[in-house]
Every structure is written in C-alpha cells, then in structure tokens.
Design brief:
Blueprint (H helix, E strand, L loop, with lengths): L1 E3 L6 E3 L5 H13 L2 H4 L2 H17 L1 H12 L3 H25 L5 E2 L3 E9 L2 E5 L7 H12 L3 E5 L5 H14 L7 E4 L3 H9 L5 E5 L2 H14 L2 E5 L4 E5 L6 H10 L9 E7 L5 H10 L20 H9 L5 E5 L13 E5 L11 E7 L2 H9 L3 E2 L1 E5 L3 H10 L4 E4 L11 E2 L2 E2 L7 E2 L7 E9 L14
Parallel strand pairs: 5-6, 5-8, 6-7, 8-9, 10-11, 10-16, 11-14, 13-14, 16-17
Antiparallel strand pairs: 1-2, 3-4, 4-21, 12-13, 15-19, 18-20
Helix pairs in contact: 3-5, 3-7, 4-5, 4-7, 5-6
Length: 455
C-alpha cells in the first residue's frame, strides 16, 4: 500500500503487519495473567515511567507528528503535552468513576469489584496519532487489560516512536501492549479476532458503523467516537468571536471531529461575515517544516483536498474559494453560504454559513443533522445559553468558546451518528472494566421464605 505524505506529496510505502502476528499476540494475551494480577500501584509505576519518557522525548515525538500529518509544530507539541497530562487525568478518573458504594451488615458485605475486560483493540485516527490512542491505552492498561493498537497508516513514524517508548516503560517484564500496522485489512482482523473483548475506535461514521455491526456479531464491546457536522451559533456579536469561529472551523486544517463545519448566524449580525472572510484570507498556512509557526498545515487525505478544491454543493454560493498552493496537500480554507442541507463530515478546512431570523430557528438548524458531537453558542446572555443547553442534541455544548479543545477532565462523545453513548475523555475508564457485584458471608445463614420447608 502506498500513501502520499501531506507535506510533500511524495508517495511512501505503508508497512503491513501479518495477520498471523496479530493473532499470535491476541492468543498469548488471552492466556496471560501477569499484567491483570499485578497490583494497581505497580501498574501506575509503569504508566508514570511512560509519562516521563513522553516528557524526555517530547520534541522528537512532535517532530514525527508534524512529519507524518503536516501539523504545525506548535500544535504537535500541544498534542504531546496533553498526552503527558492524560496519565494523571486517568488516575483521577479511576478515583471518580470506579468506586462504588459498599454495605456492611452484621454478617453480610456487599461490594462491587472492577475486573479487566481481557484484550482490548484500539483503532486510532491520523489527526491525533499520539493523544487519542494513548487516551484509550492508558485507562485500559491501568485497569489491567492487554492492548493491541492498530495505528493509522498515515502516522507510522509517530506510532513507532510511541511504541518504542511503551516498550522501554516495560523493560524487565513482558510488555502488555502491541502495535500493528497496515491498511483496513489489519483493522478488520483485529475486530474479528475471537480473543479481543473490546474495540475502541475513533474515526469516520461510515467505518465506525461497520465496526459496530461486526462487534455485535462477535459479542464484542464497541466504543465508537465518530464524525461530526458541528455548528457554531452566533446569536449576538461579541469581541473575539471571529477568532473563536476560525479556531472552531480551521484548527488542524479542519481535521478534528469537533471542528465547526456549520456557522449559523442571526441575520442581525450577518455583517460579521465579510470580516470573517478577510481574517481567513490572512491566515498563515504552510507545510512542515516552516520558518514561522503557521496557523494550519495541509490536509492528509487526497480525496478531501480534491473535494474542497473542486466540489459543488447544492444550495450554497461560494464566498471564498479554496486555493492549492502547489505543495503537498496544502490548501486554503473554503467558505460557502446558503440554505442547503449538506450533512456529511467533510474532514478539512471548509465552512458552510447559514443565516437565521431567531435564536430558536438557529437551534433548530443546529439540530438538523444526522450528527451530534459538538456545538458552540456565541452570546453574552446566560439565559440563552441555558435555553440552548436544554434544546440541543450534542454530546459537547460550549458557550463562548470554540467547538474544539475538549477538556481531559470531562466526557467526550457524541449523539446520533457521532457516537454510541460510550463517551471517551474522563469517562473512557468506564469502558475498560467489567463491574462485578459480590455479596459475601463467611458462612451460610439460615434462609426463611414462605412455603420453604425447614430442614
């Protein structure tokens, strides 16, 4: 398999792990009890070792991310930083999420214990090749699971760098995590493997729905964080709102599932649109490496580049056409305006603008989508925000901040076609255990029920 590097357009070969290697590791992990039986405190030592390795190698990791997918270096460094913070956030999540009430009677003790699932498969995306997989690997390992990671074929260097650090963190003992590489066939083999108890997937809705169906057939737990067609609603004009719109729509070149694809503007404030267009035209964009930090880099997928450059969208007028710079997959943002109903996740720098005549009309327009991941409302009026909070069908609803940039101390997941009601983020650890209820007595107590003859 060959793919194009987004910075240069150069075709590079993707390494392919044999399915037999994946199956051998899954079978071996399914039989092993070393890691699940290790004390949690000892598991934490290994996770902390990995955390320190991330700190020590942060510049190298960031460089590989930017080389793989074209992120500006400042953004790649931010990705490594939030990966470092994920260890401590996961430890905090364990304290909040995995402690159940207990009841002790005169003779009886009732409690819930959390047991590992077994072998967990992680299928990661290209846009956050370090942060998102580690956001699932770390809680899975902390809870005593073995992990097999199918890396994005667009982020091989980044993943190999992280894989080497995990190996180093587990020196002196069998490593409970394995990385496999390749195209969709290796991902399908991971989903179908009978020793895999759970699949944690992040990616497009189309692929996520296919994985959910396969997991249902195998009775495998599936945690799916999928696409979005996210709105940002401008109900009132505010200082800083143009930057908030740009950060929502075009950070990471629009390649975040939480990026705003739709701008819904109250017609009373439609005069912000020409200002927005001018600001977008002034954005610094560049491939990596660049002499100065650009705001955004290239798109990764050639099909998205072509669609944003040349696509025709019914019901919309082009306010700002996308331009190709002639280097790799670097394209400038595109802006459309109209009253069409384009409801796909177009994973790149494009924004569809719609004008409305009331706040309730804006809320209805925001909900008019098969997706329900992220939404932001721009208004100084707290009562409007709380009204929106009760009306909108999204997993993330923000007030005067971008649709992007979710906190690691909050759940992250969507509704409708954006998720399957198993949010990641702070809640990811919920999906890494089987809660086992147990009622305990040191000896059998006499039972007395109506109609039960005495012994």
């Amino acid at each position: 398999m060959m793919i194009a590097n987004p910075n240069t357009g150069e075709m590079v070969a993707v390494m392919q792990t044999p399915v037999s290697v994946l199956n051998d590791h899954a079978a071996m992990y399914a039989q092993s009890r070393d890691w699940p039986q290790m004390a949690i405190a000892d598991r934490v030592v290994r996770l902390k070792a990995f955390q320190q390795l991330l700190r020590d190698n942060s510049d190298t990791i960031a460089h590989h991310i930017s080389m793989d997918i074209g992120k500006p270096l400042w953004e790649s460094r931010n990705e490594v930083a939030i990966s470092i913070a994920k260890v401590d956030a996961t430890l905090q999540a364990m304290q909040y999420r995995l402690h159940y009430p207990q009841q002790r009677g005169q003779h009886t003790f009732i409690q819930t214990v959390c047991r590992p699932l077994g072998v967990v498969g992680v299928i990661g995306p290209f846009n956050f090749p370090v942060h998102i997989p580690n956001g699932q690997i770390i809680p899975a390992l902390l809870c005593g699971n073995y992990v097999i990671v199918k890396a994005s074929e667009y982020a091989i260097q980044s993943t190999q760098c992280i894989a080497a650090l995990w190996e180093q963190a587990f020196l002196g003992m069998p490593c409970p995590i394995t990385f496999v590489y390749g195209d969709a066939s290796i991902g399908k083999a991971l989903v179908a493997n009978p020793h895999v108890s759970a699949i944690f997937f992040t990616g497009s809705t189309v692929v996520g729905q296919q994985i959910q169906k396969a997991c249902q057939q195998h009775n495998t737990l599936c945690v799916a964080e999928m696409g979005g067609n996210n709105p940002i609603i401008v109900e009132d004009a505010m200082d800083g709102m143009i930057d908030t719109i740009i950060a929502s729509a075009f950070i990471t070149s629009g390649q975040r599932c939480s990026c705003a694809r739709r701008l819904i503007v109250n017609s009373a404030h439609a005069d912000c649109i020409p200002t927005l267009i001018r600001r977008i035209q002034d954005l610094n964009i560049a491939t990596y490496p660049a002499p100065n930090d650009p705001f955004m880099g290239p798109v990764v997928l050639p099909s998205i580049k072509t669609r944003i450059l040349d696509g025709v969208f019914d019901g919309y007028e082009t306010l700002l056409a996308s331009q190709y710079t002639g280097q790799g997959h670097l394209i400038s943002p595109r802006v459309e305006m109209g009253n069409g109903h384009f409801d796909e996740e177009l994973f790149g720098p494009i924004l569809f603008v719609t004008r409305t005549d009331s706040f309730d009309e804006s809320l209805a327009e925001a909900n008019r989508s098969q997706f329900g991941l992220s939404c932001s409302i721009i208004t100084p009026d707290a009562s409007k925000y709380h009204h929106a909070l009760n009306q909108l069908s999204f997993g993330v609803i923000n007030w005067n901040v971008p649709t992007t940039g979710a906190s690691g101390l909050a759940p992250f997941g969507g509704r409708k076609s954006s998720g399957n009601f198993r949010p990641a983020g702070f809640n990811m650890i919920d999906h890494c255990v089987v809660p086992v209820a147990t009622t305990q007595q040191s000896q059998i107590r006499p039972l007395s029920y109506p109609g039960l003859p005495s012994e």
